[in-house]
Each structure stands twice: as structure tokens, then as C-alpha cells.
Amino acid sequence: MHAQELLEQVPTVGRATTGAEAARVLAEYRLAALLVVDDDGDPLAVVPGSQLLGIVLPRWVRDDRRLAHVYDEKGADEMCGRLNRSTIGELLDESRLTPDDTPSVLPEDTLLEIASAMDEHHSPMLVVRDRDGVFHGVITMSRVVAAIAAAAGQDSDLIRRRLEKDIILRGTPEQSGPTREAP
Amino acid sequence: MTVAAVVAVGIFVVAYVLIASEKVNRTAVALAGAAGMVLIGAVRGRDVFFSEDTGIDWNVIFLLLGMMIIVGILRRTGVFEFVAIWAAQRARARPFRMMTLLVVITAGASALLDNVTTVLLVAPVTLLLCERLALAPVPFLLAEAMASNIGGTATLIGDPPNIIIGSRAGLTFDDFLVHLAPVVVVLVAVFVGLAWVLWGRHLRYDPERAESVMALTPRETITDPTLLRRMLVILGLVLVGFLTHNWTHLDPSLVALLGAGAAVLASRMPSEEYLAEVEWETLLFFAGLFVMVGALVHDGVITVLARELTGAIGEDYLLAAQGILLGSGILSGIVDNIPYVATMAPLVHDLVGPGNGLPPERQSLWWALALGADLGGNATAIGASANVVITGIARRNEHPISFWTFTRYGLVVTAVTIGLCVPYVWLRYFGVG
Predict the structure, then answer these.
(1) Is A65 on the interface with B (CB under 8 A)?
(2) Average pLDDT, chain B
(3) Global pTM?
(4) Which of B82, B106, B174, B276 is 20 to 30 A from B367, comparing alpha carbons?
(5) Which residues does B17 contact at the CB level (< 8 Å), separation at least 6?
(6) Which domains are assigned to chain A?
């Protein structure tokens, strides 16, 4: 199986998207990572969900993890309000993530090469670009794992469905059809 | 001076300028300078490792290493965060009371730990408290950086320059406590008053916001109470070891290493974890510095300088002490006080000899050097490592402190604290008897 057969269209966010909106997209589509694109729809970065949590955490808690324990429930909930004040662009700037850092594979790469790239970059999402740099779509961890399971003889209806339908086509659990334009 | 001595001075000056400029990694500069000294033959290979006067001062290196391991394990207990939040709640979250307690805690902790570790621990808690109170954290962070430099002056282990002075002069932990701690207590009290004038009177109290500080649960920071108890016992024993040097004759470096060993056993921490707490770069920086300064001693440069100075001051040690106090205060604000003291220590040694057993007026030069170098570090944002760390933390948390903001307050604090040391040195070593 090659990367082009595992291509997927996923909902995207831009630099101006707030942390709260990004969290909603992650939750609605059960994504493990966010694809951030520019105005032309070209990928700027892949942000793992765990990194998005960094927006919720104040810097001082990231500097000293024990301080996360001292907030009461009310204080902790207040901290989550920070998601509305921060944008994905700020997160990218702070993380110094650039388009060059975006983990990518070629359309003709094999399953093993895809798995290797995900492992190397610790990224649950890869961008697929051809040799001319043209963006084709993304590959998500869940689809790679489904392909690995199928290749290993662990086939099932759910696995087949997972390999056939994009996240964006499956929609949210409450919806049956597509919800937004793919990049 | 010989040609080798002139070349050695050239290497030293270039390295010093590069370190002061902070454009190049200071450890790389110190090691390159040391390599240059070895290559031109300004210092012999055997002396680098085995000479007390012209080689690496292993007492300093191993004292730092031992304390880094102890503090690295102790900080994982969460005790510092607990104390800071507890103090804020004791102050009922009233801003200036809170600032006062944080200043006293920072100064006290800095006397026992190195200043950088102290501010690294207290700054995140301060940011949390200020966020809860909707207060600008910059005045608190400035006060803490300066308090750590003042508090660190009190003991042998409080500030790296003191460790160098203690080792080169043969002065003990007790000597530092007797000669510097009393004046530091006064300086901390005066600094609290200054903090009121500079920042405290502008702070506003909001009872509603204060409630959010009172709702914090500091006990939650203590994740391993057993380890905390063990570490407090070990830290106490290490301090006893420092204090009883006159009876045990155990060097501070050995006490620190024994304490570090006990801490490792008590924590059962894997070696890669506690070794990660060691600032190897700092230790290498010290090693490089010692070799560079040792080359100047070996080639007679320091002796020539000392002879010139002796000719200038004659027997007027009061003038010499005040000159060193004020000169060190000024220079330490401009250059890192560690290389400054590493250079000055052999010079003072040549002027008056080792500190232990000297008449008070001669010994005063050593104490003037410690006071000037430690307190002078408050003058600018680059005067001491703690200042650099605090300004870095402030910038990362979107509360940048500009060089001039720091310096505006730092110059006032330095002028007042060193100004108070002038009569202290005069009265204590020259005025009585």
C-alpha cells in the first residue's frame, strides 16, 4: 500500500483560529493532530493535540509542573478560558514551528516508510507532497494503523470502513455527511 | 615580563572581553583560552591538574558538583513551591507583605543554595501568585533576583564567587557566617524598605482576587513527603558538616560530595536523572577559568600586579579594602562576577596572603572582595547569573524586563547596599580597637 492510497482530507485551521475553536475541531473529529494551513490552503504545520494543550497551560506551569496541582477546580477552569485568548499562530511562533518542520512523505512511499516517518517525527499526522512540493492531503495515524492491521490479516468491517472513508466524509458523530471543505 | 607572559595576558584579555560581551558561549571561550595557555606553555600540563595555585581548583569544582546534585534532588520534593505559596497565604495575599516574605525566603534560600536555582524555583510561583492577584509580576521578579544576590553573599556556598574566595583564601563556612551574614541580615532589612519605595507603595490590594490565592492548595506541591523528610535531614547534616569544619577538618567539597551521595541513596534516583541536574557547562567554565588565571600566576603577571598595588597602597589597607569594595561593585555590574573573582583572588592572595589567621585589617580585603563582587552583581541585568535567568523567565512569560528597567532599579539597590558596606568594613576591621 502506498501513501496516495491512504490520503485523507481533514478539517483544517488557520493561524487566526483560537485555541478554543481548535479544541472543538479536535474533539468533534476525534483528531490526534491539527493541520494548520495558510490562506491558500497550503500546510503551515502539523500540531499534535498534546501540543495544543500547551495553550491551556500557563508558561509557569510548563516551567514547574508541580504548580498544576495547587489550583482548585474553579482556578483550573479559569485557566481553560485562556484558550479563547490564544491563537494557533501564537502557538506556532512560540514553538518556532515553520512549514519546513512539517513532517511529510511522498505519494509513492510505502506503509513502512510512512510508519517510519511518523515514528521519527513523533507525529500522528503526515503531510503528503510530491517531488514538486505540491500538497495532496494528509495521512492520519488511525488510517495507518488500520492499514497495518489489514496487512497483518486483522481485517474487519470497521477496518475496511476506516480505510475507505475520510475523516471529513465520516463527519462528526452527530452528523452523517461532510461538514466543511477539505484543503 | 617574558614574551610568554605578554602572550598569556593577550589571550586572557581577549577571552575576558568575549565572555563579557556574551556574544560567544562563555564555556567555549574559557576552554579555548585555557587551551591557548597550555599551547603557548604558559602553564604546565601537570600544574593544570595538580597545582593548587596555578591549576584547576578541585575544591571549587567538587563543592559545586555536590551541591548541584543535592539541590537537584531537593527541588523535586516541591518544598520551595510549598513555602512560597504558604508564605503568600500567611501574608493574606496582601501584595507588599507577600513581596516582603518572598524577598526574605529568596534571600534565605540563596544563602544555602545557589542563586540561579533559587530564582528558577521562586519565579514560576511568583508568576502564578501575580496572575491570581492580577498584579504585574515584574516588581516581584526584580525584587527576587536582587534578594537572591544579597542573600547569597551571606555564606560560603551562597554565591560562586564566595566558593572561589573561600577556597583560595582558606576561609571556612564559619568565617563567612561570622563576617558576612550579619551585614547581609541588615542589607536584607534595608532592601525590604527599598522595595517599598521602589515598588511596594504602588501595589494595590484586591480582596476578591486575594481569595483566589487563599484557595490555592500548597500541600499538593509536595509529591513525595518521605523524600522531603530525608532530604531535609541530609541538607541539615551537610550544613552541620560545613559548620564543624574546624573540628572535622573535612573540606566543604567533601562534605558536599558525601551529602550528594546520601541524597542519591535516599532518593533511589537513577544516575542519568541526578546527573542531569548537574550544570556540566558551568563546571567546565570554572575549570577553563582556573587554567587561564593559573597561567597568569605561573608567568608572574599576578605577582607584578600585586607588587604595583602594594607600592601604591603601602600599609593603607583601609584604602585598599574600600577600593576593592567599590571597584568590585562597579566591575561586577559590567562583567560576570565569577571570572572577575577568579582573577582577583590570586591578586588579593599576593597582597595580603591567605585569609585565615590574618590581622583584621589585612583580612578585610578578602571580605571587601566578596561583598563588592556579590552585591555589585545587582547593578545591571547581566551583572549576575540570577538576573539573566529572571529576565529570561520574564520574557518567556510575556512580561519582558528591559536591560534599562533592571539597571534603573539595580543601580539604586547596588549603591545603597555597597554604600552600607563601606562603613561596615571601616568600623568592623579598622574602627574598633
Answers:
(1) no
(2) 91
(3) 0.81
(4) B106
(5) none
(6) 3-170 (3.10.580.10)
Spell out which residues of chain B touch residue A60, defining contact as CB-CB under 8 Å. Answer: 123-125, 127-128, 131, 397
Chain A residue nearest residue B84, CA to CA: A67
Residue among B69, B123, B278, B136 nearest A63 (CA): B123
Count interface pairs A-B at CB distance under 8 A.
58
Q: From the CA of B77, how many Å to the nearest CA of chain A?
A: 9
Decide if B127 contacts B137 (C-beta within 8 A). yes
Q: Do A67 and B223 touch (CB under 8 A)?
A: no
Tell me if B124 and A64 make a contact (CB, 8 A cut-off): yes
Q: Tell me which DSSP letter residue B55 carries.
A: S
Q: Are B161 and B338 in contact (CB under 8 A)?
A: yes
- The minimum CA-CA distance between B400 and chain A, rounded to whole Å, is 14
> At residue A89, what is the residue type?
G
Distance CA B78, CA B222 (A): 5
Report the distance separating Cα B331 and Cα B39, nearest Å.
30
What average pLDDT does this structure show over A134-161? 89
CA distances from B154 to B182, B184, B185, B370 (A): 8, 6, 8, 10
Contact B56, B50 (CB under 8 A): no
Full strand arrangement of the beta sheet holding A33-37: A12-13, A33-37, A43-48
| DSSP β-ladder status, A33-37 and A12-13 | parallel
Residue-wise burial string across B173-209, b where 16 or more C-beta atoms lie within 10 A, e elsewhere? bebbbebbeebbeebbebbbebbeebbbeebeeeeeb
Q: B413, B191 in Cβ contact below 8 A?
A: yes
For residue B81, what is the nearest residue in chain A, using CA coordinates?
Answer: A67
Residue of chain A whose alpha carbon sits nearest to that of B122: A64
Mind telling me how many Å the CA of A48 is from chain B's nearest CA?
22
Helix A88-95 / helix A19-29 crossing angle, nearest 10 deg: 100
Average pLDDT over residues B328-332: 90
pLDDT band of residue B241 (cuts 50, 70, 90) is very high
What are the grid coordinates assigned to A27, written together? 474533539
On whether the CB atoms of residues B162 and B168 are closer than 8 A, the answer is no
Tell me which of A61, A69, A74, A91 to substitute to probe the interface with B (most B C-beta atoms closer than 10 Å). Answer: A69
Q: Which residues of A touch B212 (CB under 8 A)?
A: 74-75
Is B65:B256 a contact under the CB 8 Å cutoff?
A: yes
- pLDDT given for residue B309 in this prediction: 81
**How far apart, in whole angstroms, are the C-alpha atoms of residue B160 and residue B61?**
10
Residue type, B17: V
Short-list B359, B362, B336, B335, CA closest to B348: B362
Of B78, B216, B393, nearest to A71 by CB-CB distance is B216
Average of pLDDT values for A99-122? 91
Q: What is the CA radius of gyration of chain A?
A: 17
B150-193: pLDDT as tens digits: 999 999 999 989 999 999 899 999 999 999 999 999 999 999 99
Look at the block and give the residue holding cell 455527511.
A177
Provide the Cα torsion B361, B365, B370, B372; round to 10°. 100
End-to-end CA distance of chain B: 42
A44 phi/psi in degrees, rounded to 5: -100, -35
Confidence class for position A178, pLDDT limits 50, 70, 90: very low
* Spatial separation of the C-alpha atoms in residues B411 and B380, rounded to whole Å: 7
